[in-house]
Every structure is written in C-alpha cells, then in structure tokens.
TrEMBL record:
GO molecular function, one term: NAD binding
Organism: Myxacorys almedinensis A
Name of the protein in question: D-3-phosphoglycerate dehydrogenase
Pathway the protein acts in: Amino-acid biosynthesis; L-serine biosynthesis; L-serine from 3-phospho-D-glycerate: step 1/3
InterPro entries: ACT-like_dom_sf, ACT_dom, ASB_dom_sf, D-2-hydroxyacid_DH, D-isomer_2_OHA_DH_cat_dom, D-isomer_DH_CS, D-isomer_DH_CS1, D-isomer_DH_NAD-bd
CDD domains the UniProt entry points to: ACT_3PGDH-xct, PGDH_4
Keywords: Amino-acid biosynthesis, NAD, Oxidoreductase, Serine biosynthesis
Annotated Pfam families: 2-Hacid_dh, 2-Hacid_dh_C, ACT, PGDH_inter
Length: 526
C-alpha cells in the first residue's frame, strides 16, 4: 500500500479519502531536517503553507510521486526541483477563494471601525467610545491589485457596499474589469486615488516589495492597505515607518515576509494596524473544500490517473482530458515505437496532428509523444511532468505541424523521429472503440494494432520473401501472432510488420537482415 505523509493540519475528510488507497501518517510541525529524514518512505506528501518543501526534501523523497498543496499558493514548494524529478505538484485553486475574499473584507471593516482594539478595550472593562470613531467604506474608492479569483469576489462585494472600484492587473481584459464594475488603471494612479488598497496577487520577483516607501509616498494620508495575499509584497519596515509617521492611515495584514511573524516593528503599532496569523483560508468550509480537492487528486495519481489541478503539467479541463485520454495513449505508443525505430540519440521529433487532432490543444499530445519517445531509455523515470525537460536537456528538437484536412480517420497522429538509426515515421489513429491502429510506417500503408513485441522489415516486394522470414523465425522457434505487408507499388519497396510472442534476440535479427531482399529490420518492445 502506498504511504502518504500529511505534514500540516488537514481536515479529516481529506484523510478519509486518502485512507481508501494509502497508509496515511499525520506528522505536523516537523523540523526541516526530520522531514528530510523520513520523506524517503513516502509516495505522497500533503501540505498547507506551514511545510517548506525545499530541493533537499525533494531530493530525499526517492519514492515521491505527488505533492498536494491543500490551498492555492505553492511558493513554499520548490516546484522546479519537483518538476525535474517528475513529481507532480497539485493545489486547490478555488477551494478557499471565498474564505480569503471574506477575510479581506472583514479586515477592511475591522480596520475602518477599529474593531479589534475596541473589542480589547471593552473586554478590559473600559467604555471608551471616543477613541474608536472610524470611517465608512460607502462611496470610498477601493483599489484592487490583482483581479483574479479572490480580487474579483472582493470587488463584487465591495461594489454592493457602495464602493467605487479601481483595479490594476496587466493580465485582465478591460471587458472583464468592466463586468466587475472596475476601472482598469495604472498602478501609480491606483496608489494616488484609492482610499483602500487591497492586494490579491502572487508573490513573484515583480511583485516583491511592490508596496515600498516610494509607493507609499504616492498614497493619500487617509489610505488604508489590506494584504491577504502573500508576505513580501509589502516592505514591512517601510510600512511600519509610514504608519508611525502618519503617512497613511492604516494597514491590515494576514500574511508576512516571514511566518510565524515573531519580532516585528508592526506589532508595536496601535489601532491603525490589524494583524492576523495567515487566517485567510481558515474557515471550516474552505478547509473541507481544499482537503477534498487535493486528497482526491493524490488518490487519483496514486491510482495512476491524471490530476485535475497540476501546477507543473499543462492544465486541462477534466472533460477535455477525458476526450484526449485515448489520443494521449496513442501518442505515447507511437512515440515509444518511433523512438526505438530511430535508435538512440534522437535529434528531432516532428509531430503531425491531423484531422480533429489538428484543432485540439496540442501540448498534452506533444508531452505524451515525448514521454513515449524517451520511455525506452528512461523507463519509469520519465513521466508527464518531466518529459519536456528531459527532451530539452537531450537537445531534441520538437516540431509541430497541423493538417485538419487529413480525414482518413477522425484524428490521426504522425510522428517522425531522426536518430542514430536514421529517420523513421509512424502514423496511428483510433478505431471506433478507441483501439489504437498503426496506419503507416515510413509512409507505407499498414493497419496493425500495436503488440508488446514487434518486428519491422524494409524490403523489396518480391515473391518468397514472406515465406523466407516465416520459416527463418519458425526455425528459431519464434511464434508469429500476426503479419502484414504494406507497399506503395507492386514489386517496389515494401514494409512487413510482424507481431511476435517473445522478444527477438539480436542474433536472430541479424539473420533476418541477411535474407535476400531485406534492406533493414528492426525489433521493438512496447
Ligand atoms: N491569506 C490566505 O490565506 C490566502 C488564501 C488564498 C489565497 N491567497 C493568496 O491570494 C493571492 C490571490 O489568489 P487568487 O486565487 O485570487 O489567484 P488568481 O491567480 O486567481 O489571481 C491572481 C491575479 O493576479 C494577477 N497578477 C499576477 N501578477 C500580477 C502583477 N505583477 N500585477 C498585478 N496583477 C498581477 C493575475 O493576472 C491574476 O488575475 C495569491 O497570492 C494566493 O496565494 C492567500
Ligand atoms: O495560498 C493559500 O491557499 C493560503 O495562503 C492558505 O494557506 P493555508 O492553507 O496555510 O491556510
């Protein structure tokens, strides 16, 4: 039974799903060195933001197949290292959207009405009404930085509260912004005009310290900033100084450059700052959503099925994935076949997408073909996650061509590989029941299903050659399951495809090549 390590607090519903297919060990709060020590025994790791999955952890995780992040941000995972090792990284892109958006709105209101400090004061026995006169958000301008899933929900609710909306997001269309009643503006204008600024962007090299002393200097003294996105987007020292000097009116932060927060100039400030310990996703509802979402993906991957929200393989809608699955199998089989025909040291792979395949998203097909191409050399070390990197590192040139007019089958795929044994080409298609057929070899028409062991010959079309090969193999006790010949013209060049029950030893292959009329012969194991 596979083993899953759960190293952050995850809702029980997720543990129950994992337990259907795996032994689940829950060990939270592990020091990094202990995680490195125990990770080799696990097939999967399930985390939230508390566990740092460094390159050291990934290198030590010899059996790791999947890292599941029960939440959105994967900035605590070295995704590049995982990809290189062929480990799929999945998350739950939408499971905690509402929770994070509602926390943002709660932070905005808390800040405006000084609720945390007023609560503290009242609990201490005081009745201080004078110190906590706040502001209304009605008719104020909210600047939304990042109009993705959370930013959009914040904007929708803020609009219902009567706020005017500005947004900055270079990847969002004007139409989408208008749909959300937001005016798309440049960052500088958003800083200058907003009464409230809320951040909903990932932390990237471009967004690190986006809110720094220079940015704050452009804001109004009445501006309040809310960050429920990621620590490090705000320069915390500059923010603390600005609040102390009254350059802006307030800030509410749920996330920090370093977590747990520990010593910080922010904690010494008064009612103008509201701090929470990364609680954006901490609702019962969100925790059930993300636990189910990610546990199901870990379960599926451990069962050999694809994950629906992998961050390091091209995303595909589940319905599209279902539709493409037989073609992925076709691409992998043809890749494996043409890779062996072309020999080692593949220089290039030409992927010809024909018929309905020419109009589909091609990236998964390309990856499947590369996985097949490299599988003979790399065996189980190559998978959908690392096939592209492995091909790139081997200098394999990938060329994609499309021809929707080829209509012999609904969709067909032609792979042409150039390697140490020359250039070879195979075409394949799916029959009605999704059965794979190899429909041409080096442009010679054939119609054979793939078989575990196969022998291909290139020969001259002449009487007696089929009999010679048959008796030669019979003499060596090689059992032929099926045989087919393909030719373009009578007595010209031809190909022969034999499905055989056992692998053909090299010495017999050499005998095949010596048969009169045979130009070349190849064996493959699929
Ligand atoms: N506090 C929490 O507990 C909590 C919970 C969930 C998500 N988050 C964080 O909230 C953030 C937003 O999450 P989401 O689900 O809305 O993500 P999302 O991917 O749906 O939206 C992010 C948006 O940011 C935009 N963006 C990217 N780079 C930008 C840049 N340089 N300038 C402006 N816009 C940029 C993108 O175009 C996108 O629209 C993430 O950082 C996520 O990790 C925090
Ligand atoms: O990216 C996220 O999903 C949030 O930051 C939530 O993090 P958490 O799962 O550690 O609460």
């Amino acid at each position: 039974m596979p083993k899953v390590l759960v190293s952050d607090p995850i809702d029980q519903v997720g543990i129950d799903i994992l337990s259907q297919v795996a032994q689940v060990d829950i060990k939270t709060g592990l020091p990094p060195e202990q995680l490195v020590q125990i990770i080799p025994e696990y097939d999967a790791l399930m985390i939230r933001s508390g566990t740092r999955v460094t390159a050291d952890v990934i290198d030590a995780g010899k059996n790791l197949k999947i890292i599941g992040r029960a939440g959105v941000g994967v900035d605590n995972v070295d995704v590049t290292a995982a990809t290189r090792r062929g480990i799929v990284v999945v998350n739950s892109p939408e499971g905690n959207t509402i929770a994070a958006a509602e926390h943002t709105l709660a932070m905005m209101m808390s800040l405006s009405r000084y609720i945390p400090d007023a609560n503290q004061s009242t609990k201490s026995g005081k009745w201080d009404r004078k110190s906590y006169t706040g502001n209304e958000v009605y008719n104020k301008t909210l600047g939304v930085v990042g109009l993705g899933k959370i930013g959009a929900h914040v904007a929708t609710v803020a609009r219902a509260m009567g706020m005017k909306l500005l947004a900055y997001d270079p990847f969002v269309s004007v139409e989408r912004a208008e749909q959300l009643n937001c005016r798309l503006v440049e960052l500088d204008m958003l800083f200058q005009e907003s009464d409230y600024i809320t951040l909903h962007i990932p932390k990237t090299p471009e967004t690190a310290n986006l809110i720094n002393a220079a940015a704050i200097a452009r804001m109004k003294p009445t501006t309040r900033i809310i960050n429920c996105a990621r620590g490090g987007i705000i320069d915390e020292a500059a923010l603390a100084a600005a609040l102390q000097e009254g350059k802006i009116a307030g800030a509410a932060l749920d996330v920090f450059g370093s977590e747990p927060l520990g010593e910080s100039p922010l904690t010494a400030l008064g009612k103008e700052i509201v701090l929470t310990p990364h609680l954006g996703a901490s609702t019962e509802e969100a925790q059930v959503n993300v636990a189910v979402d990610v546990a199901e993906q870990i379960r599926d991957v451990l069962l050999g099925l694809p994950a629906r929200s992998a961050v390091n393989i091209p995303g595909l809608r589940p319905d599209l994935l279902e539709q493409l699955k037989p073609y992925l199998q076709l691409a992998e089989t043809l890749g494996n076949l043409v890779g062996q025909l072309a020999g080692g040291r593949i220089e290039s792979l030409n992927i010809g997408l024909q018929g309905e395949l020419a109009t589909n998203q091609s990236q998964p097909i390309v990856i499947a073909a590369l996985k097949g191409l490299l599988s003979h050399a790399l065996q189980e070390r190559v998978n959908y996650v690392n096939a592209s990197i492995e091909a790139k590192e081997r200098g394999i040139r990938v060329i994609e061509t499309r021809d929707a007019s080829v209509r012999d089958y609904a969709g067909s795929l032609q792979l042409t590989a150039k390697g140490s044994l020359g250039e070879h080409s195979v075409t394949g298609a799916l029959l009605g029941d999704n059965e794979i057929r190899i429909t041409s070899l080096n442009d010679f028409p054939i119609n054979v299903p793939p078989n575990r062991h196969m022998l291909f010959t290139l020969h001259r079309d002449m009487p007696g050659i089929i009999g010679s090969i048959g008796s030669l193999l019979g003499g060596f006790n090689v059992n032929i399951a099926s045989m087919q010949v393909g030719r373009k013209i009578v007595r010209g060049d031809a190909v022969m495809v034999l499905s055989i029950d056992d692998p053909l030893p090299d010495n017999i292959l050499e005998e095949v090549k010596k048969v009169s009329g045979i130009r070349d012969a190849y064996t493959v194991t699929l």
